[in-house]
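> example.struct
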């Protein structure tokens, strides 16, 4: 849980598939779902990667996203590199905990100009250069691994850190990687879960990796710092196989109309 404006909330992370179900496909009863979140002292969270997937898709879905999410409190979470930097700060004993929220939106704005559309445009503008860099990074990563599908796990781990520039973020990380301790360390949970998620796809998917796969992997960086994640079937299965402590993972189908919502 985190404090927002002095109140504690459970962070409920939803991915692009969940957003599509809410704003377009119609399998989720929107008022019932958001009321359920509010009643459980939760706040809906998503990432920049989810926003980009919606924005770069069908225009109608983007308009629906802006209209529907302007009605409810929500938060956008930090990108993977920012979470990693926070872990470095904590590792160096400069902070005692990690605050995963980049910015949050409240419907209780100061005036009529405070609207979700304006808010999301402002946060996207703040992250513009970062998102361009990351998307190029993701493309380079998938192109490399799609042409090399028979690497050993040790080699995959090494190349993943290299291609995602993780070993260049800080000298502490570089030392951890060289000591071959990073993957086993609990100090950098974001990197550990990102790699595990990547290797699961590299090993088991019988198709080329896609940008959407790397988006899901980057989203996982923040998973250790939320309370609940609601996602599509494959992503949910991967997270459950990781046996993450104190983090509940659900499929979006658990929230379809007519279902009894799970206890959170």
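> example.seq
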């Amino acid at each position: 849980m985190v404090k927002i404006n002095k109140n504690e909330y459970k962070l409920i992370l939803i991915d692009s598939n969940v957003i599509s179900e809410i704003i377009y496909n119609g399998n989720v009863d929107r008022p019932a779902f958001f009321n359920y979140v509010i009643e459980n002292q939760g706040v809906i969270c998503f990432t920049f990667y989810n926003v980009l997937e919606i924005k770069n898709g069908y225009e109608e879905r983007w308009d629906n996203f802006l209209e529907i999410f302007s009605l409810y409190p929500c938060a956008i979470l930090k990108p993977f590199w920012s979470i990693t930097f926070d872990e470095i700060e904590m590792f160096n004993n400069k902070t005692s905990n990690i605050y995963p929220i980049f910015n949050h939106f409240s419907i209780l704005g100061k005036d009529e100009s405070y609207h979700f559309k304006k808010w999301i445009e402002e946060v996207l503008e703040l992250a513009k250069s970062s998102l361009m860099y990351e998307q190029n990074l993701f493309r380079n990563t998938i192109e490399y691994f799609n042409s090399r599908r028979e690497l050993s796990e040790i080699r995959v781990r090494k190349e993943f850190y290299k291609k995602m520039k993780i070993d260049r973020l800080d000298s502490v990380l570089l030392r951890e990687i060289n000591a071959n301790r990073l993957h086993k360390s609990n100090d950098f949970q974001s990197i550990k879960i990102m790699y595990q998620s990547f290797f699961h796809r590299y090993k088991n998917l019988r198709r080329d990796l896609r940008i959407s796969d790397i988006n899901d992997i980057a989203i996982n960086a923040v998973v250790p710092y939320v309370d609940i994640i609601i996602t599509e079937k494959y992503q949910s299965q991967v997270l459950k196989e990781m046996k993450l402590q104190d983090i509940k993972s659900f499929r979006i189908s658990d929230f379809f109309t007519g279902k009894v919502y799970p206890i959170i």
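> remarks
The two ends are 12 Å apart (CA to CA).
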